[in-house]
Amino acid sequence: MLSIFEIAASLLALSAFFGWINHVFIRLPHTIGLLAMALVSSVALLLAEWIWPALGVTDAVQLAIGQIDFFATVMEGMLAFLLFAGALHVDFDFLKDQKWAIGVMASFGVVLSTVIVGSGFWLLSGLLGLQIPYTWALVFGALISPTDPVAVLSLLKSINVPHSLEAKIAGESLFNDGVGVVVFTILLAVALQTGLESDGIDFLHVGELFFVEALGGAVLGLITGWLAYRAMAYMDEYTLEILISLGVVAATYAIAIRLHISGPIAVVMTGLLVGNRGVRVGMSENTQKHLFGFWELIDEILNSVLFLLIGLEVLVLTLDPSSGWLVLASIPLVLCARLISVFLPISLLSFWLHFTKGAIPVLTWGGLRGGISVALALSLPDNEYKPVILSATYGVVLFSIFVQGLSVKALINRTVDPTLL
User: Fold this and answer.
1) Rounded to whole angstroms, how far apart are CA atoms 221 and 272?
2) pLDDT at 91 over 60
3) Can you name the CATH fold of 70-420?
4) What is the pTM for the complete model shown?
5) SS3 label, residue 367
6) Of 143, 202, 210, 405, which is least surrounded by CB within 10 A?
7) Residue 384 and residue 101: Cα distance in Å, rounded?
């Protein structure tokens, strides 16, 4: 049994080692390269165990990985700091210019995609003889519909995108995961028939939960963000101001969890306030340089460990091999749902707002899924449907990161006006 320190040390060392190999020899984008190497290593260990069972190496690695609670690590640990780091670098003025598109896609778009994916998943499972109940199919729709801000923001660092389109992609990814987690929580409660009326769905109660969690998170983030940048305005000591930013992220997310409101939305609002209003009124140039540099480093380290973990989790997952056709069918289903959930809002808003040429295909193909979807799938209670949902989730996430992530740059070059790049 490894200690927490030994597990953390192993993950950091592996991230550094795989990162070096990828940078020197493979030359994939950093996070995608780490994921690829972790997956290859996991498959190699499983094959070695199958060929030479007496080795016992795989058992030792599985025991170590099995000690990591992926859901708690991501959703109650890494996510708060990753979202704050991402929001810190987003220009609030660009977000305001695109507020309607971001707001509609991050709310209506997520709900619409959830319904489309859930309905399609239910129909496909029935046709393939797996018979997933409709409520559990909707749970899959909720966990796979939000684009992953960690994957998306990591992608945006490596490609050149017009500012207006970048604001839509970044803004939507930052907010729709918070909305998605709220929708997932509600639908999971419906599927388990806990907290809601046992004879059906109480839509009034569902609406109340959604409103309280999402709005409550936004209000909490505004309060803690304001307190943070006001505290920074009284000093010019970058080490203490970095400590304040760390403390406010951790405290905001912890309070949100305790109050049962949206922690992701709360820390995004905090990051936007500190990174925009705080820069203008509360930070010297020296503080800005050190604080932004610190959070860029935090972002890179946590991203590396997260993508490594996604690959290594294959060693301990209970996947359902009989659901292979459903997994394959889920990939175009999720893409179609994404296309519709992007096309409808943009088509309606285009009557009075201007959108960059190529916005629909880029937003559709650039809507990556990642660790948040995997974490939510792993958090499901053990039942007969979890292995199928987990298999489909992993299939969509891997396709999203490897195929979409590696080809979106070519799509942008083909569809977006080159004078805007």
Assistant:
1) 9
2) yes
3) Na+/H+ antiporter like fold (1.20.1530)
4) 0.90
5) coil
6) 202
7) 39
